[in-house]
Amino acid sequence: MLDTFRHKGLRKQLIADIRKKGVISEPVLAALENVPRHFFIESSFLEFAYQDKPFPIGSGQTISQPFTVAFQTELLSIERGMRILEIGTGSGYQACVLADLGAKVFTVERQRKLFSKTRELLLKMPYKVQIFLGDGYKGLPTYAPFDRILITAAAPEIPKDLITQLKPNGILVIPLGGGDDQEMLRITKLPDSQLKTEKFGAFRFVPLLPDLGND
Ligand code: SAH
Predict the structure, then answer these.
(1) 108: Cβ below 6 Å to ligand 1?
(2) Where are the alpha helices (DSSP H) in the chain?
(3) Which among 112, 59, 63, 109 is positioned nearest to 89, based on CA atoms?
């Protein structure tokens, strides 16, 4: 796939748009400018790839809106070399944005079809993202603990296993809520294992699936 001047130009406009909506972290904005979103959208529909909108990626799932990707990434305060667990790989776009920031990314996808398709795509990207097929509610105990955990689907509750897999001072970002809207939460695991919770407004995500999706 090609990343032409036209793609890069459209990406610049999109970043300007996201900046206007309130994302201020320069490293995060730079990461969104670096990762070609059209690689993650089937048939690379230019006009869709570079609008600030979610888009269907098959299996009833969507690639998140770029603003939401930027917003969640900003809440994570990522530093180079951090170990990050993403729940809900989907297209792999968010995982590549995290990797572009210099993080070691581990990402879990529940639906086999999406997992296989995205694994192939990730092999072609210049990032080291480790992708796993599994239930995100359980996290990745073998690879824990993580500095940061990001959930990119609507969670009806905070998965306990994920809190366990977070390092002291680690941060979990989660859209919480089982209804139509979710509340974006940033949960910090304090050194005494108490949780500090901050709220960042309403968002809308596809649900985290409680059991195996249809393959
Ligand atoms: N981060 C993605 C968008 C995520 S959409 C991107 O950048 O494109 C939410 C994803 O979570 C979907 O792909 C869905 O299949 C997956 N998902 C839903 N329930 C899950 C679970 N229990 N464990 C892991 N992944 C899950």
Answers:
(1) yes
(2) 5-20, 26-34, 46-49, 66-76, 93-100, 112-124, 160-164
(3) 109
Compute the CA torsion angle 7, 9, 11, 14 (nearest 10 deg): -140
Measured in Å, residue 119 CA sits from the centre of ligand 1 at 14
Residue ranges and CATH numbers for the domains of the chain are 5-203 (3.40.50.150)
Model pTM above 0.70 = yes
CA-nearest residue, atom 4 of ligand 1: 90
64 included as an active-site residue: yes
Q: Give the number of other CB atoms < 10 A from CB of residue 21.
A: 11
For residue 57, what are its two tokens? 């990626």
CA distance 198 to 60: 30
Number of H helices, E strands in the chain: 7, 9
Mean pLDDT of the chain: 94
Q: What would the pLDDT profile of 47-102 be if each residue is shown by its tens digit? A: 789 999 998 888 888 899 999 999 999 999 999 999 999 999 999 999 999 999 99
